[in-house]
Amino acid sequence: MTADRKLRTLSRKSGAAGTIAGALALAVAAYALIVRYVPLTLQVLAVTAALYPFFICGAVLAMVLFAVQRRWLVTIVAAVLAAAMVLVELPWYIGSTIPAAETVHVRVMSSNLRLGTAIPASLASTAQQYADVLAVQELTPELANKLHGLDATFPYHTLAPRKLSAGVGIWSRYPLEHPQQFVDGEMAVVSAGLRVPGMRVAPLIVTVHLPGPFPKPVADWRRSIGQLSERLRDFAGGPQERAVIVAGDLNATNDMREFRGLLRGGYRDAAEQSGAGVQFTFPSDSAVPPIVAIDHILTFKATAASVHTARVPISDHLALIADIALTPG
Predict the structure, then answer these.
(1) What does each C-alpha distance from 200 to 241, 327, 328 come to in angstroms?
(2) Could you please report the per-residue DSSP string of 294-320?
(3) What is the full DSSP assignment across 111-149?
(4) What pLDDT was estimated at residue 319?
(5) Are the beta carbons of 220 and 83 closer than 8 angstroms?
(6) What integer pLDDT is reported at residue 10 of this predicted model?
(7) Which SS3 state, helix, strand or coil, does residue 217 take?
(8) Beta-sheet pairing, 204-209 with 244-249
(9) Class in CATH terms, 97-326
(10) Is 39 helix (H, G, I), strand (E, B) or coil?
(11) How would you class 182 by CB atoms within 10 Å of its CB: exposed for 0-12, middle for 13-18, buried for 19 or more?
(12) What residue segments make up the domains of the chain, in order of their start?
């Protein structure tokens, strides 16, 4: 076999391999986009939706591979798919609401305490730096007893500590009123009115922790999402001018249809509202950066001016922090 013939054979083989790889990448990316809009009834679907942003790379890879092979029709298909996958994420990086000129600002920090193993001094230091209100999840009775260091800065609190992951709590620089608790299995919700100076109607601050869709049964997660949706409707049905701020580990991302179902009736995700982008918060205890955005701060009749994350030692979640602008009314 001549050298030219060998080169042609090698070129055909590499071209076929590139075409197959491009087709697989395109199919996987298309699958991820479809999963974004279907009910998540299987764990594999939930995991796919959680990792959706990374599947965009599949569409881009397919576009490049097809372009190298000069397969222009499928190159265009891959480009359209990549554009569609990016467009659904774009609003999170643009922002859509500008706070009114006359507003009262409250800084809210949400932190998962990793089954009560967070270091009290580190948590207190981070909260003192960034927060007016601290909402925590996975608050155990043992850790709650060690968090007295918060009291100097956050003298008001309402807590529902429990073993393992279901405990939640709120610490505040401002007085809290009418606290309520709701616990069902691994789902826990604590709420209270927040007496913020300058606000005629006290906004409602809520912290929540939902069970995850993996590795536990996805049906439990779907049931908890439905229960939270009902709670959110109840919270929104309070006094006409009352704002609501919901902070917690929802074990769901914006690419999950069930999570987007929570953003109805006036609720907004603070990261999207402020244009801060998708806030990847978990896992934060490995050598690689967090890869899923399962911690959220939601607003109702309030505006997120900014959102960012902060590291809390020992925790496997980054803390999520939002500057919330409230209209005095």
Answers:
(1) 9, 9, 6
(2) -EEEEEES-EEEEEEEE--TT-SS-EE
(3) EE-TTTTS-HHHHHHHHHHH-SEEEEES--HHHHTTGGG
(4) 98
(5) no
(6) 42
(7) coil
(8) parallel
(9) alpha beta
(10) coil
(11) middle
(12) 3-88, 97-326
Per-residue three-class SS string for the chain:
CCHHHHHHHHHHHHHHHHHHHHHHHHHHHHHHHHHCCCCCCCHHHHHHHHCHHHHHHHHHHHHHHHHHCCCHHHHHHHHHHHHHHHHCCCHHHHCCCCCCCCCEEEEEEEEECCCCCCCHHHHHHHHHHHCCEEEEECCCHHHHCCHHHHCCCCCEEEEECCCCCCCEEEEECCCEEEEEEEEECCEEEEEEEECCCCCCCCCEEEEEECCCCCCCCHHHHHHHHHHHHHHHHHHHCCCCCCCEEEEEECCCCCCCHHHHCCCCCCEEEHHHHHCCCCCCCECCCCCCCCCECCEEEEEECCEEEEEEEECCCCCCCCEEEEEEEECCC
* Look-up of token digits 């089954």: 115
Contact 293, 267 (CB under 8 A): no
Name residue, tokens 């934060």.
284
Tell me: the pLDDT tens digits for 56-83?
Answer: 999 999 999 999 999 999 999 999 999 9
Q: Is the pLDDT of residue 13 over 70?
A: no
Q: In this predicted model, what pLDDT tens digit does every residue of 168-208 receive, in sequence order?
A: 999 999 999 999 998 877 788 999 999 999 999 999 999 99
What pLDDT does residue 244 have? 98
101-134: per-residue pLDDT in tens? 789 999 999 999 999 999 999 999 999 999 999 9
Q: How far does CA 153 lie from the centroid of its chain? A: 27
Q: Could you count the other beta carbons within 10 Å of the beta carbon of residue 1?
A: 7
Residue with tokens 């913020």: 196
d(CA 301, CA 200): 14
Instruction: Give the C-alpha separation, 108 to 130, whole Å.
Output: 8
CB 279 within 8 A of CB 298: no
